[in-house]
Amino acid sequence: MLLGRLRIRGRLALLVIIPLLSMVGLAVPVVLDRVAAAQRAADTADTVRVASRIGSLVQDLQQERLLSVGSLLGRVTRTELIQKSATVDDRVADLRAEPLPAPVRTALDGVRTLDDLRTAVLAGRATPDEIMNAFRTVDMALIEALRLPFQVDTGTSAGRQVLALDALLRADEGLGACATLIVLVKTTGDPKVAGSYIACMSALLVDNRRFRSLITPEQYRLAMLDDAAVAARTSPTFLVDSVKDPVTAIAAVPIDALFPSVRSMITLGQFVEKKIVADVIAETRNEQRDALAAAWLVSAAAVLILLSVVLLGMAVARTVARPLTRLTRSADRVARVAEAELTRVVDDESETVAPVRLDPIDVGGRDEIGDLARAFERVQRTAARLVERQVAGRRNVAQMFGHVGRRTQNLVGRQIALIDRLERQETDPGRLEHLYRLDHISSRLRRNAGSLVVLSGATGTDGHVAPVPLADLVRLALGEIEDYTRVDVQVPSGVSAGPATAGDLVLALAELMENATAFSPPHTRVLVAGEQTDGGARLTVVDRGIGMTEERLAAENARLTRRERLDLAPTEVLGLFVVGRLARRHGWNVRLAATAGGGVTAHLDIPAALLVVRRPERAGVAVARAAVPSRERRALPEPARTPIADEPAGFDAALLSRATRSLEAGQSWNAFGNPAFVPGPAADPGTAADPGPFADPGPFAGGPPTAWPPLVAP
């Protein structure tokens, strides 16, 4: 069942979620409606502001129309007309710089159509009819572009004010046209012009009546002041008489007084227009504030109720779920401690683990939950003691590995020293060869002891006190593997490893070369090459063996870089485990990659901070290949070694000499020759030139072809 899958808090939440959702469903529409009303009020205010700017532009166009007619009648100077045209263009440019509706922008483009008419007026070629028609078209296009009756809710007070503003703009346009026509009636007396004036006045009276039916009493009183101003500039009965007979009504008014009066009459509607705009903006601001306040009030009330119900549900759930939650946290802590112990990796040369301390379970109830809590606390204490014992046991095992490894190193060191003394005293070639082989086995045993110390997490003691060339380090590593005769060395001179890392570098190289020889066929060669890089030096171990799959390569590369516990690592990859731990200790970068044609290539990058680079004395690389000298040569006494003048202080010459002798003692073999071939007697050392330990034994003397493929860095 669904209830069985829910927690305690989920079940309590299910009791209150349906009423809460109902309340939210009722509150959200109210909030959205109030927000929409506030947005509509803001849009209305923006529309009225744009209408006010357009009204000012229309009044400037009406003034320019009157001045254009006055210019034809000789009542206006050319300069005054040009100034008014420039004022109109500046106002249009200002409007274009503001965000406007698309229809308004289109209507503003119509002002440009007046350019040809303006030129004709200045040249005296235009007629009054052309001026009247052109300007009326532009003015009405601007008023119609506002679409004021369609932008507002006419059922509200602000909507009716916007309708009044639309009627006022139309009435002002009619008043401006009628004022211009009365001037033409006075100057021309043309009956056609008089008829146009009568039609204009009739339309004006209709717009004026519509406007006054929509305005407030205060706005009406301001409009009556405009009527009084018109009567003062003409006569008290001028508006009525001019509709009947405009020629007779205007006969008593001289043109010199009529033209200035008409110019001032055009601006009278601006006062009422500003008043309406201010009233609409104030009313819409109040509506917006009230709508937002209502939205906030409803939202706050809904949130308050929600919080109250949620807090009450949490308080009830807490009394039930809190003891269970404490038990869950305690169980989780025990699980985390156990998981941390399973996955914890100590790779920092020491292991200092704080004892496990788990907080007691604070449940004092005497009910079933309290009994469960007390029983679980006993389980928690037992688990903590078990984890501490596991940590102590693993620490003791690691210390035991370290002690055994160091003891073995000491014993092997004493054994090698004894073998060295026997080698110096022995003159029999057969026994000397056996001593060399015993020396080699002791070196391998010493490497295993060093690996055991690394596996314990401790650091080994490095006997080097001066930088050691990389080529010598490779030779020392060769002396610690079994199939050293299959390894070719191509390491450039002039690059040495610091004394702090020389011993660990020999151990890592030995492990890599041991893997390369162990997992490749006996007839193949293993190449150890070196090169300088921008970041230091790179040693590469290339074998042509069975190789690894891509998944196995990825897993081994991850093991080389990540920290891993010894008891969790597979036993067959302990060599790579040792290499990875040494790499992380010294900051090396070890990567495995597939060799072209089969096999594995191991790249060991050494940072420049761990190297000492010297200018090479000669170009090229030293190629060292293990070879077995003749018995007569081994029987010869070893010449006294003369110290080299530029040998670094602290160089372990005996150690390098012992590794070289181990290489010389190995039996080389021909993988491509006749297995039944038995070599004859050794050549006389006095007649044959001694090839030396680093001479090339030829293409079929147990080594690869002379032209070894160049090492390609990945």
Q: How many strands in all? A: 9
Based on helices, strands and strand pairing, what is the structural class? Answer: alpha+beta
Order of the strands making up the biggest sheet: 6-7-5-4-2-9
Terminal CA distance reads 60 Å
Rg, Å, rounded: 53 Å
Counting DSSP H or I runs of 4 or more residues, the number of helices is 22
The main sheet comes to: 6 strands, mixed
Secondary structure: helix percent: 55-70%
Which blocks of ≥5 consecutive residues have pLDDT under 50? 345-350, 619-651, 666-714
Into which percentage range does the β-strand content fall? 5-15%
Overall geometry comes to elongated
> How many domain units?
2
What is the mean predicted local confidence, pLDDT?
Answer: 75
How do you describe this structure in short?
By secondary structure, the chain is of the alpha+beta class.
Describe this protein's structure:
Helix 2 (8-72) packs antiparallel against helix 14 and helix 19 packs across helix 20 (574-586). Strand 4 and strand 5 (536-542) form a beta hairpin. The protein contains 22 helices and 9 strands. A 6-stranded mixed β-sheet has the order 6-7-5-4-2-9. A 3-stranded antiparallel β-sheet has the order 1-3-8. Helices cover 64% and strands 7% of the residues. By secondary structure, it is α+β, with helices and mostly antiparallel strands. The chain folds into 2 domains: 8-292, no CATH class; 413-637 and 650-665, Histidine kinase-like ATPase, C-terminal domain (Heat Shock Protein 90), CATH 3.30.565.
